[in-house]
Amino acid sequence: QVQLVESGGGLVQPGGSLRLSCAASGLTLDYYHVGWFRQAPGKEREGVSCISSVDVSTYYADSVKGRFTISRDNAKNTVYLHVNSLKPEDTAVYYCAAEPRVRRVCSEYSTAYNYWGQGAQVTVSS
């Protein structure tokens, strides 16, 4: 079965950093676009970042550009999201998702993705 498991969340002070991991089993992430999304209470799910499989391209939401970095380790079948300079508004449940690389580039929209993890809580508070 396909499974995506997020890890690395937790409580961090403003300005701090975390490394979120998305470990896959049942599929090889080399052949998938991978996206990170987040959802805060009372808000819509937001596309945070994605990394493409077909070409060398990434996407970052304006709200996180310059602070978050997405990367891939094919040997570990894992995609990471380094979240830096965290702000209280970054507090949310963070999800990773995967879609087959039919599109040329990854999508910022959740509807494009087939497989989802259960989410990891990130709380930014002093």
Topology:
Elements (H helix, E strand, L loop, with lengths): L2 E5 L2 E3 L5 E8 L6 E8 L6 E6 L6 E3 L7 E6 L4 E6 L8 E9 L14 E2 L3 E5 L2
Parallel strand pairs: 2-11
Antiparallel strand pairs: 1-3, 3-8, 4-5, 4-9, 5-6, 7-8, 9-10, 9-11
Q: How would you summarize this macromolecular structure in one to three sentences?
A:
The protein is mainly beta. It is 0% helix and 48% strand.
Your description of this structure?
With 126 residues, the chain is an all-beta fold. The chain has strands at residues 3-7, 10-12, 18-25, 32-39, 46-51, 58-60, 68-73, 78-83, 92-100, 115-116, 120-124. The strands form two sheets. Strands 2, 4, 5, 6, 9, 10 and 11 form a seven-stranded mixed sheet that branches. The protein has a four-stranded antiparallel sheet with strand order 1-3-8-7, with no helix packed on it. The mean pLDDT is 96.
Features:
single chain, 126 residues, mainly beta, 7-stranded mixed β-sheet, 11 strands, 48% strand, globular
| Rounded radius of gyration (Å) | 13 Å
Report the sheet with the most strands, covering strand number, pairing sense and barrel closure.
7 strands, mixed
Give the overall form.
globular
User: Percent helix among the residues?
Assistant: under 10%
Total E-strand runs: 11
Unreliable residue stretches: none
Number of contiguous helices = 0
Question: What class would the helix/strand composition place it in?
Answer: mainly beta
Distance between the termini: 40 Å
How large is the share of residues in beta strands?
A: over 45%
SSE string, helices as H and strands as E: EEEEEEEEEEE
Q: Could you report the average pLDDT, rounded to the nearest whole number?
A: 96
